[in-house]
Amino acid sequence: MAPPPRANLTGFDVRKLVQASRMPANDPWARSEQWRYTGPFTRWNRFRGTLPGFGIASVAFAAYCGYEYLFLNDSHHGHGSEHQEGEHH
Q1: How many domains does the chain divide into?
Q2: How high is the pLDDT of residue 77?
Q3: Cα–Cα distance between 62 and 57 in angstroms, integer?
């Protein structure tokens, strides 16, 4: 035989909370809220303007890094060849 249920001292019913927090079957505000997720307010359109210029900046930076690697001389290249062997400063 199961023990009798304990008395609820607070009056809080978890089942009622779960039932109240679900989406209602017929939401009266659904039609009013629909504009927030359509047209210019879709998730993609809201995210697209978050970092303006990031794509152009990343391509320009990659192009500059490639230019620097291929065409600019490194001033420290050949540092050891400037000094002759046996010569100490």
Answers
A1: 1
A2: 55
A3: 9
